[in-house]
Amino acid sequence: MTPQGAVIRASVYTWGEPRGEAIACKLVELAQLGADVAVVHNGISEGVRGILDQGGVTWFDSRLDRDHDGVKDFYVHHKCLLIGQPQAETWRTYTGSHNWRTGSLRRGDEVLLRIEGKDTFDAYIANFDLLRRTR
Prior knowledge:
Order of helices and strands: EHEHEEEHEH
Structural class: alpha/beta
Number of strands: 6
Shape: globular
CATH superfamily: Endonuclease Chain A
Strand content: 25-35%
CATH topology: Endonuclease, Chain A
Largest sheet: 6 strands, mixed
CATH architecture: 2-Layer Sandwich
CATH class: Alpha Beta
Strand order of the largest sheet: 3-2-1-4-5-6
Helix content: 25-40%
């Protein structure tokens, strides 16, 4: 993947442990090479937060306590990774049930689906933008 000009978006429920930190490192690397990277999440570990704070990745916590009772009323739970490369006319949408944690690979019965094409990519981008705007 050539990062310059690439658009990468992700929606993640939980993100941590060595697997999550490796993903965070890769996203930071791609962002620092010129990709436009943004993530919305429900919770990240301190390790992932420290990596993301190195710069380049825009990230948003989706949790919202609307009535201020200490219980989160709204949060993102779906998972997707969107990778668009306009120069190569490549549009990939990955969606499924996995979290970006080691346990998802070792203890879960998870599924990941890759969908090619701009129409699906655009629909997921619109959903990501809605999540970002409304938190």
